[in-house]
UniProtKB/TrEMBL annotation:
Species of origin: Orlajensenia leifsoniae
Pfam family, one: TPM_phosphatase
Span of domain TPM: 76-192
UniProt cross-references to InterPro entries, sorted A to Z: TPM_dom (IPR007621)
Region (Disordered): 1-31, 195-214
Keywords assigned by UniProt, alphabetized: Coiled coil, Membrane, Transmembrane, Transmembrane helix
TM regions (residue ranges): 42-65, 223-244
Domain of life: Bacteria
Ranges in coiled-coil conformation: 471-498
Protein name as catalogued: TPM domain-containing protein
Biased composition (Gly residues): 198-214
Length: 732
């Protein structure tokens, strides 16, 4: 940053013969007659008394001070509030100066200079903070202190004229409290200096020299003297009242702001206390819950507790900075207080959410018998649907094939396994509740197995409902294929005609024409045979959209919009069906499906939602998003199917569900397999994770002791009658 020269007019000193009695530096003293010197002495005495009165009154009001200002995108900062309605006039003068000379004047009217209080340092920080260069001039005025600074860069060719610009064009107006006139005068002086026209006097404030008579009658001089005295006193009273009122208003505003800041800081401190208490309570709750439900069951709460503790440490560190011996600016304190409040609120909310989950889990112990009865009833109802669902899947296979039908692979078998798991788990939990209480008097918790049974029932129902949903989508797509073929044929004919009759030529249309012809051939060949109508509709719509895009330059915008509107609804319906199929497949096999498939499904849903939102206003863009959504959902299905296939091979050693390792007992292994793939056990019962783990981590080895703590389920899960099947175990 280039150094600059600061022209400073010092405050009035009693021995400074070049300063006027109003406190502002004046132009060179001129010779006056003895009568005029007498008048000046009277005014000096009056001014001294008035200034003393002003200082006495001012001492009772809070002092106003301003840090170096940030101009931002403005040329004027008026925290003193002296420009009022004249601000635009000053801005117009600044704009005209910039247009005429390339020089930009920045004007700051403040109450007093503070941080630093030294005027040269204050303006230096203003220039540095605002990154001002050689063409920037700063006029800074401290209204209450009645001092000013006119700052030029050392690189500015105008710095040699700075003193004359200040004395001739700025100070005369300041001495009359003509704040706007001082700023406008500065622009006039800078323009005159830039044009080499600088000469004495540039504003109406003028110098003290004049053409008055050197002598006159004593009587008229006395009348004139008393007239000046009366006017001066009136003006002084008006100024004093105005200053007092302004300072009082500013003091009240600062007091209110201080109260607001104090309230915010008090609230931040209160939230920190609440958070600290919640953390201590939560640490105890985690210990109790781990003993009751197992470490894996409380892992989400443990993670939430760790995150909240980290937020608390960060919030306390910020609060410590607020309270240390190094003061911050008001803006910094406000920002730090807001940070403390945000950190504490988010941490408390996270703990509350997890606490509610554990409250619900504990409530299952108190309400376990009615819940188990509901589980058993629902399992019987869903079991009655299994045969009909298997028959429906078989019938669909006679008419359809392909990627959509593949989403139903294993649905019935998986549902059967989940129902078996729910039934057996509910029975074991009921047995625990009906068994005599142990000598300790503390009956083991059944909340975890009850919740697992509930989730298994819900997932089994979702698997069966998915079959009905896919069947409806395939039937609807079958009825749509013929219309899609007609639409593609119509666009294809238009494209062929356009290729030979317009400026587009064959090169621009060759690729979409070839793709459309290939899709049409496949659609005609598949007619009447086992196929995937949903996938075929998607391919036909993609071909039609590609033709529409290629033909767009030759079509009027209105026609293009109409075409997009006509295709949009069908494309969105196809995308919705594809997303639903992918969602059902992933949700009911989430224990085996990785993140890639989920990510594509999430993006497909986002694009679909966006397409629905923008469709009315931008059908062309909405159509593109709907078609991309279709493709992503189809990709999600393929990846998820690969994940499930690989999971079966990795987890069960190539021997299907059980392979060579055997199952705990007849039906038990199938039930566990359904729960594992469905993700039921992964989040509730596992001791070492979903896929990995050695024999005995939960149900292997000696039975339920590893999973539920100390053989908690007795004859239900432990010993030789539970899932362990005599301790044969299997990889889990």
């Amino acid at each position: 940053m280039p150094r600059h020269r600061v022209v400073v007019a010092d405050s009035v000193d009693g021995n400074d013969q070049s300063a006027s009695d109003d406190g502002w530096p004046d132009e060179e003293a001129t010779r006056v007659t003895t009568g005029r010197n007498a008048v000046r002495r009277v005014f000096a005495a009056l001014a001294a008394g008035a200034i003393g009165l002003a200082l006495a009154v001012g001492a009772a009001s809070p002092a106003l001070a301003d840090d170096p200002v940030d101009f931002g995108s403005s040329d004027i900062v008026d925290t003193a509030g002296v420009l009022g309605g004249d601000t635009q006039a000053v801005q117009d003068a600044i704009d005209q100066l910039q247009a005429d000379t390339g020089q930009t004047l920045l004007v700051a009217y403040v109450n007093s200079f503070e941080n630093p209080s030294d005027r040269e340092q204050w303006v230096q920080e203003v220039r540095d903070a605002n990154q001002l260069g050689a063409s920037n001039v700063v006029l800074a005025v401290a209204v209450d202190d009645r001092i000013y600074q006119l700052s030029f860069s050392d690189e500015s060719p105008l710095q040699a004229d700075s003193e004359q610009i200040a004395s001739d064009y700025v100070v005369p107006s300041l001495s009359q409290d003509d704040w706007a006139g001082a700023a406008i005068g500065a622009t006039e002086g800078i323009r005159a200096a830039s044009n080499g026209e600088l000469s004495g006097g540039g504003s109406d404030g003028g110098t003290g020299s004049g053409s008055g008579s050197e002598s006159g009658s004593g009587g008229s001089g006395a009348v004139l003297l008393w007239g000046f005295l009366v006017v001066g006193v009136i003006a002084l009273v008006i100024v004093l009242v105005s200053v007092i009122r302004k300072r009082r208003r500013a003091g009240l505003a600062r007091a209110q702001a201080a109260q607001d800041r104090a309230a915010l800081e008090q609230r931040a401190g209160s939230l920190l206390v609440q958070l600290d208490d919640a953390l201590k309570t939560s640490e105890q709750e985690v210990g109790f819950a781990a003993a009751e439900f197992g470490d894996e069951a409380v892992k989400p709460f443990t993670d939430a507790l760790a995150a909240a503790s980290a937020s608390a440490r960060q919030a306390f560190a910020v609060k410590q900075k607020l309270d240390d011996a190094f003061p911050e600016s008001e803006a910094e304190r406000a920002a730090m207080t807001a940070e403390v409040t945000s950190l504490a609120e988010q941490a408390i909310a996270g703990l509350d959410a997890r606490s509610d989950e554990f409250d619900a889990l504990r409530a299952l112990d108190d309400n376990a018998l009615p819940v188990l009865k509901t589980v058993t009833t629902d399992a019987e109802k869903l079991g009655g649907r299994l045969s009909a669902t298997e028959a429906r899947i078989a019938e669909l296979h006679t008419r359809f094939e392909g990627e959509t039908m593949s989403t139903l692979t294993g649905n019935a078998a998986q549902a059967r396994q989940l129902l078996a798991f729910a039934t057996e788990t509910a029975a074991a939990a009921a047995a625990t509740l009906s068994a005599p209480a142990p000598d300790s008097g503390h009956r083991p918790s059944v909340a975890i197995p009850v919740r697992a049974a509930q989730q298994s029932i819900g997932q089994a129902g979702q698997l069966l409902d998915a079959v009905d949903g896919v069947a409806q989508s395939l039937e609807a797509a079958t009825a749509t294929v013929a219309k899609e073929i007609d639409d593609v044929e119509r666009d294809l004919a238009e494209a062929r005609q356009t290729a030979v009759t317009t400026r587009l030529g064959e090169a621009a249309l060759a690729a979409p024409i070839a793709a459309a012809e290939q899709v049409l051939a496949a659609a005609r060949q598949a007619s009447g045979s086992r196929t995937d109508p949903l996938a075929m509709v998607r391919r036909l719509q993609e071909a039609e959209a590609a033709l529409d895009a290629a033909l767009a330059p030759s079509r009027e915008q209105r026609v293009q919009q109409e075409r997009a509107v006509a295709l949009l609804g069908r494309a969105q319906s196809t995308a919705q069906a594809q997303i639903q199929a992918a969602s059902d497949f992933i949700a009911t096999r989430r224990g085996a499906v990785g993140s890639d498939a989920r990510q594509r499904l999430s993006e497909a849903q986002r694009l679909f939602d966006s397409s629905r939102a923008i469709g009315p206003g931008d059908p062309v863009q909405a159509l593109d998003q709907a078609q991309r959504s279709q493709a992503l959902a189809a990709s999600a299905i393929q990846i998820a199917q690969t994940d499930v296939s690989g999971y079966d091979d990795d987890s069960w050693g190539g021997g299907g569900y059980g392979g060579g390792g055997g199952r705990g007992r007849s039906g038990g292994g199938d039930a566990l397999t359904g729960a594992i793939i469905g993700g039921i056990l992964g989040g509730l019962l596992t001791g070492g994770g979903g896929r990995g783990g050695d024999s005995g981590s939960i149900f292997g080895g000696g039975g339920g002791g590893g999973g539920f703590g100390g053989g908690g389920f007795g004859g239900g899960f432990g010993g030789g009658g539970g899932f362990g099947g005599g301790g044969s175990g299997g990889r889990f």
